[in-house]
């Protein structure tokens, strides 16, 4: 097995990036249509979106594409994350963390996934 290459990053992990960079960079007046949860790390969707933002931010630093990071990553994710009406923090209030129920799903019939639309055309 080949050794994995360690990629050098500005921040060591997501929490450090959010706490030391993003939370200081983003300044918004909360209330109205915007909200945030101080316990963002307890929301799976928020962690996933913020992790994607961090990974793309690290790449943008190396590639000098910060404008693209703002336009294609930060702005769309923050719009969803901070939406008081539809974002993952919508049930939270200052000092009162709450989680929402996951999307309801029904078990699917495994035979539905056998169709050609879901098969690998190369046979791999």
From TrEMBL:
Q: Which domain of life is it from?
A: Bacteria
InterPro entries attached to this UniProt entry: DUF4913
- Any single Pfam family the record assigns to this protein: DUF4913
UniProt-recorded name of the protein: DUF4913 domain-containing protein
Say which species the protein is native to: Streptantibioticus ferralitis
